[in-house]
Design goal:
About 25% of the residues lie in helices and about 40% in strands. It is of the alpha+beta class. The strands form 2 sheets. It has a 6-stranded antiparallel sheet with strand order 1-2-6-7-8-5. Strands 3-4 form a two-stranded antiparallel ribbon.
């Protein structure tokens, strides 16, 4: 782990510095290895985009936050999101979202993270990738 890498409490502190992220109630639960982080977020009525469906924008936000957390576990900081892609695979609105985020590249100019959002039963709901300007 690089000396600038953040530990789990520091990653959650950075995540929760945003009022929006606090509203999402997303939390990093484990650093599997530097660059690979697990997160969890509760499902609730405010996240619905239609009856019984999670709004797709919520999944996009989760992808952004989770990739950010994974990059923090390696580099300790990052710049803004410059590109994002989200694929929607299924819908589930019964319980928490289990999120897996992994750094694909943490270079000197850009950092890229890959994210999978699953239901608690392991069903893949969405996946995505974020690219960030790398903080120096």
């Amino acid at each position: 782990m690089e000396s600038s890498a953040l530990d789990l409490p520091a990653i959650n502190q950075r995540i929760h510095a945003s009022a929006f992220n606090r509203w999402l109630r997303i939390e990093a639960t484990r650093i599997v290895v530097p660059g690979q982080v697990e997160l969890r977020m509760p499902s609730r009525a405010e996240l619905e985009g239609g009856q019984g469906m999670t709004h797709g924008g919520i999944f996009a936000c989760i992808v952004d936050v989770a990739a950010f957390a994974a990059i923090l576990s390696v580099k300790g900081q990052t710049g803004p999101t410059i590109d994002m892609r989200v694929d929607f695979h299924a819908n589930a609105f019964e319980s928490d979202f289990i999120i897996e985020a992994q750094v694909l590249r943490a270079g000197s100019r850009i950092a890229t993270g890959d994210v999978k959002i699953n239901s608690v039963t392991g069903k893949l709901l969405a996946s995505g990738r974020c690219v960030y300007v790398a903080a120096r």
